[in-house]
């Protein structure tokens, strides 16, 4: 039978490191980003009550929080709060600071295309333009071979809109490539004071040799976009809502959506 000191030590056991989702929700609770008024109350049979849900964002980002309403002698109710704060000026979001493209064998006939997500976190429309000078220099230094290409080096994003920069990579030699491209942003007030850089890293290798270690290209997705289900598999879409805009009758409108498998070991199966 354990003594008193053993019982006390057991009760103070380290709960362990919180998961990313737990740390995310704890930060929201600590900052009181979501509030409900009133927190407690009672209802007579057939009575209804208005609840005020307040959103106090402290930063430019997206928030979500799962809430349970405990009902005495009844089943708890679950509701999910979501909110997003936008910047007053044009602000571009790149999910990662550096994009490590998966290793590609040399000698491919066609380049591999990687969609890189960009989002407008501002409240006004923005224009982006990638300075291609360094890309052209790198290709010229590699015998004028098109090692890197970008299909859409400039574009326009509406407020809160998500799009993709399509980057092509076809290595000429078995070596590592590094490319830093300035991105110029402007809105209705002119050029943005923020500086943006698209950093690309790629590795070429001989197909008959062992493939180099690969860094997950789609890592570090925002927590709100990763959905964990009961069996432990993780999946996320590149966007959570699709706006097809104003279109004429019988005129098709297409949108590009990526489905990510965020589980490092298990294969993902899906069915629409």
Description:
With about 270 residues, this protein is mainly beta. The protein folds into 3 domains: about 5-85, no CATH class; about 90-205, Sandwich (Immunoglobulin-like), CATH 2.60.40.10; about 220-270, no CATH class. It is about 10% helix and about 35% strand. The chain contains 3 helices and 18 strands. The chain has helices at about 5-10, 20-30, 135-140; strands spanning about 35, 50-55, 60-70, 75-85, 90-95, 100, 105, 110-120, 125-130, 150, 155, 160-170, 175-185, 190, 195-205, 225-230, 235, 260. Strands 6, 7, 9, 11, 13, 14 and 15 form a 7-stranded mixed β-sheet that branches. Strands 5-8-12-10 form a 4-stranded antiparallel β-sheet. The longest helix is centred in the N-terminal third of the chain and has 12 residues, at about 20-30. It is elongated. The protein starts with a helix and ends in an 11-residue tail after the last strand. The model is unreliable at about 1-10 (pLDDT under 50).
């Amino acid at each position: 039978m354990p003594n008193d000191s053993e019982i006390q030590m057991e009760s103070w056991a380290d709960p362990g490191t919180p998961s990313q989702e737990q740390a995310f929700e704890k930060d929201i609770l600590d900052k009181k980003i979501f509030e409900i008024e009133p927190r407690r109350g009672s209802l007579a049979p057939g009575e209804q009550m208005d609840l005020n849900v307040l959103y106090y964002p402290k930063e430019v980002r997206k928030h979500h929080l799962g809430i349970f309403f405990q009902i005495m002698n009844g089943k708890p109710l679950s509701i999910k709060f979501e909110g997003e704060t936008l910047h007053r000026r044009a602000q571009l979001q790149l999910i990662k600071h550096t994009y490590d493209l998966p290793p590609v064998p040399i000698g491919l006939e066609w380049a591999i295309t990687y969609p890189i997500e960009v989002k407008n976190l501002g409240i006004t429309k923005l224009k982006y333009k990638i300075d291609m000078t360094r890309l052209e220099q790198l290709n010229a230094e590699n015998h004028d071979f098109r090692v890197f290409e970008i299909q859409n080096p400039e574009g326009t994003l509406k407020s809160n809109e998500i799009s993709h920069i399509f980057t092509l990579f076809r290595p000429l030699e078995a070596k590592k490539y590094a490319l830093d491209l300035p991105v110029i942003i402007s809105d209705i007030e002119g050029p943005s004071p923020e500086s943006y850089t698209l950093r690309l890293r790629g590795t070429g290798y001989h197909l008959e040799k062992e493939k180099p270690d690969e860094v997950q290209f789609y890592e570090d997705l925002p927590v709100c976009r990763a959905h964990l289900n009961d069996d432990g598999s993780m999946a996320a879409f590149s966007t959570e809502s699709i706006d097809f805009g104003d279109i004429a009758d019988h005129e098709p409108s297409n949108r590009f959506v990526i489905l990510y498998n965020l589980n490092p070991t298990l294969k993902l199966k899906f069915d629409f």
